[in-house]
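== Item description ==
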Amino acid sequence: MIRPAQVSDIPALLRLEQQCFQTDRLSRRQFRYMLTRAKAYTLVFERDGALLGYVLLLFSRGTSMARLYSIAVDPQARGQRIGQALVEAAEQEARERECAWLRLEIRKDNEASIGLFTGLGYKRFGEYGDYYEDHMDAWRFEKSLAPHLRPDMVKVPYYEQTLDFTCGPAALMMAMKALYPELPMCRKLELRIWREATTIFMTSGHGGCGPYGLALSAAHRGFRVELTINDERMPLLDSVRSEEKREVMRLVQEDMLDEIRALGIPIRHGVLTVADLRARFEAGGIPLVLISSYAIYGEKFPHWVVVTGFDEHFIYVNDPFVDYENGETATDSINMPILQKDFERMARYGKAGLKAVLVVHPPIEARAEEKH
């Protein structure tokens, strides 16, 4: 019988961890957290009062991605398709929560697990070096839970932001790399773009980059860009309370706007719908969208993501932020599926409801030079 795990199952779950794993075991505290507070769901396989296996799922807040975090089957009960039954039950749970994809990592030396998941239709799409405590590498696998969906995707290389305030530069680097593969993605470039594009919030407020600065950074590297903002007022001024600091921000952005106009960068005041984004995407552009991170991470700060694809129900994004505190890895931030109706709600920030989209197009010339 497969049923949801309960706190009273923790001793039996710990015994399974001891029996099945030499390293990377979940602790009592971790199991309790997963069962009581985390955005997680654990199923157990029970027979005659004995707990013979479990599977643990993690769900991303605000997205339609699920991650199979851990699975274990009692060594004495293997060969009875318990693992397969648990995975299929986990997939059904994820589908009921409107998840489009299920992902996981598997040790490269775990042939049994690799065979189980490939047999169930999971495809290998990447790897992690030195992933486990004993330094073993991991394969990354995924499976579509809605096989009728055929996403229109573009390969956008992934780059994880290295500072809390560099989501904009990281997102822009991913978009430029997709359009010009020779462009290096490195921390020097991340910080260089941040210096160019920051709106100078000084010692308070968010220290990230606004739409004007990112548009100029892309244009200076030879890329064609177009900018859409829903408000003619200077963006993000309501992020700080000090009149003096707002004045500095206003002057910096006025200077950026003057250069945008001098360079002839198209700037439109209005709103792009998901359909508009898809049209630009299908024309060869890579959209960067400003969102409020609250729907995904539970904290209110402006955040840039890169659009990587569309299908009938979902918009897919690369998110430069990885939520390690909630057990996520970079796998969870690549091609994240978000329901289109949810994305339209989160694609705004602040009391003023700022909406900003920067679409990056291939370079004007054959090459985009960037020293590093």
